């Protein structure tokens, strides 16, 4: 741990902590926003670039894959050139790449600049977490992680509404230009107040180990991101990506435990809290973005909400998350953090159970209320988890550990989105077949509906109307079954919390 920050007079120490917190929070929010803010602008980019649906999806895929591959490098590069220097380079690179994305004139350009964005942005979240853990004394880690968690959790939640507003009233390019003032302020604060760490000039780079993990992560991300569009295992591309991911990960695991100087030190995994922390973090990632991926299309396609209204109705979820994190910040030193996580998980289970009862006529208030409850639960889980996962981990593993923690959570989010999307398509087909069995010439409810003038079963138009309604009801039930799946993920997560060892401040 960097002792220079902790050994200063208290007044000066507190003021520097405020500036450091503000600076790294800006960098965290900037990167977290970019995980979702560009999604709503894709149709506008597609029109401006003259691209197909499959081509424009690479704007998201390139960023996700580049970020996933570069993130494991954070620990090694920080050790070789210094954590502060890496943070500054990352902020400057990310800001410049954002400006270039906004100015891009072709699809090839924006994909290339998004790759750069992903590479430079990969280090921002783990470095910000590591710096805050070192800046604050151990008894204040809960409060520090509450502040850090606001950026990590609220950024992706507010991204779609902010992106929709910027796209609607300005231009899709502003979803990238908005990063420029954030980046400039973050660079100034980091350069002025963050202390540099010691440099390990003799640390060797495990090229073979990094190549294996890069191939595994890159193949996995491509598999998850493109699987649905390529119809999964009917595509040779998906089969190859699955094989590469499995083989490379298997070889990396063997290499990590047998090499003298592996890319990731296996000693990290001897810490129980860290291992349980990244496991629960993976499941949190699944629930966090998968639920966010389901609600907008449910509200737009089945309830008829315009995109801006969808963003505004989802925003209170972020306020619930912020409230949960503030509660944790207040109670972190008074209450066993595991109890807060249990309460948060129960709130998430309750809100997801309520969502399984949604209909196409569900009120705006019910959407807001369940979102706030779910956000509150996420806040009560995320901050204690981020604190306890590193509470017993040796400080020398902190930068590497935070990078791995963020990576596993991001992979969980990617898997969650792919699973719910595929499961939805599968369940809609099954539900449609099940409902169609009741649409027969002998169906009494169908004849009653026809007598009331709702459908004309004697014409082709009437039959098409009935089929459209069957499709709609099958889709509604499919979404509800997806919410139930997310609820079961939270139920499985609940007992894992008690595997965490309680630590005293």
Quick take:
The chain has 21 helices and no strands.
Strand content: under 5%
Largest sheet: none
- The average pLDDT is 80
CATH architecture of the largest domain: Up-down Bundle
Helix content: over 70%
* CATH fold name of the largest domain: Growth Hormone, Chain: A
Shape annotation: globular
Name given to the CATH homologous superfamily of the largest domain: MFS general substrate transporter like domains
**Class from helix and strand fractions:** mainly alpha
Number of strands: 0
Order of helices and strands: HHHHHHHHHHHHHHHHHHHHH
- Rg, rounded, reads 24 Å
The low-confidence runs, each spanning 5 or more residues with pLDDT under 50, are: 1-11
Whole-number count of domains: 3
Distance between the termini: 16 Å
């Amino acid at each position: 741990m960097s002792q220079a920050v902790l050994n200063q007079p208290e007044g000066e120490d507190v003021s520097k902590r405020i500036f450091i917190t503000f600076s790294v929070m800006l960098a965290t929010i900037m990167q977290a926003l970019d995980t979702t803010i560009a999604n709503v602008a894709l149709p506008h980019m597609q029109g401006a670039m003259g691209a197909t649906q499959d081509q424009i999806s690479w704007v998201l895929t390139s960023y996700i894959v580049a970020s996933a591959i570069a993130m494991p490098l954070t620990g090694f590069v920080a050790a070789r050139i210094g954590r502060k220097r890496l943070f500054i380079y990352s902020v400057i690179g990310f800001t410049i790449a954002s400006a270039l994305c906004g100015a891009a004139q072709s699809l090839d350009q924006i994909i290339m600049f998004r790759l750069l964005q992903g590479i430079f942005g990969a280090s921002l979240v783990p470095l910000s977490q590591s710096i805050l853990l070192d800046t604050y004394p151990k008894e204040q880690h809960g409060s520090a992680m509450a502040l850090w968690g606001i950026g990590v959790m609220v950024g992706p939640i507010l991204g779609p509404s902010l992106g929709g507003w910027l796209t609607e009233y300005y231009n899709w390019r502003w979803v990238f230009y908005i990063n420029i003032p954030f980046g400039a302020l973050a660079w100034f604060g980091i350069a002025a107040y963050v202390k540099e760490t010691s440099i390990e000039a003799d640390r060797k780079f495990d090229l073979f180990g990094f190549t294996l993990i890069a191939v595994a992560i890159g193949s996995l991300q491509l598999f998850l991101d493109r699987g649905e569009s390529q119809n999964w295992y009917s595509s040779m591309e998906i089969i190859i990506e699955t094989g590469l991911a499995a083989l490379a990960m298997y070889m990396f695991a063997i290499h990590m435990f047998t090499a003298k100087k592996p890319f990731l030190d296996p000693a990290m995994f001897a810490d129980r809290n860290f291992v349980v922390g990244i496991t629960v973090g993976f499941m949190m990632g699944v629930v966090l973005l998968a639920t966010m991926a389901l609600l907008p299309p449910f509200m737009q396609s089945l309830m008829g909400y315009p995109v801006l209204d969808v963003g505004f109705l989802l925003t209170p979820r972020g306020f619930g998350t912020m409230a949960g994190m503030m509660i944790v910040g207040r109670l972190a030193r008074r209450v066993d953090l595991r109890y807060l996580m249990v309460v948060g998980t129960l709130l998430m289970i309750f809100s997801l159970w309520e969502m399984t009862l949604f209909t196409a006529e569900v009120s705006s208030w019910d959407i807001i209320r369940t979102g706030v409850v779910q956000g509150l639960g996420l806040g009560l889980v995320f901050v204690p988890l981020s604190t306890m996962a590193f509470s017993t981990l040796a400080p020398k593993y902190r930068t590497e550990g935070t990078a791995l923690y963020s990576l596993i959570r991001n992979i969980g989010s990617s898997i969650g989105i792919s699973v719910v999307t595929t499961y939805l398509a599968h369940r809609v087909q099954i539900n449609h077949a099940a409902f169609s069995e009741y649409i027969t010439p002998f169906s009494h409810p169908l004849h009653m509906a026809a007598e009331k003038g709702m459908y004309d079963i004697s014409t082709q138009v009437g039959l098409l109307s009935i089929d459209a309604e069957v499709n709609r009801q099958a889709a509604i039930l499919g979404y509800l079954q997806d919410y139930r799946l997310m609820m079961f993920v939270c139920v499985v997560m609940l007992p894992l919390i008690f595997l965490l060892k309680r630590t005293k401040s």
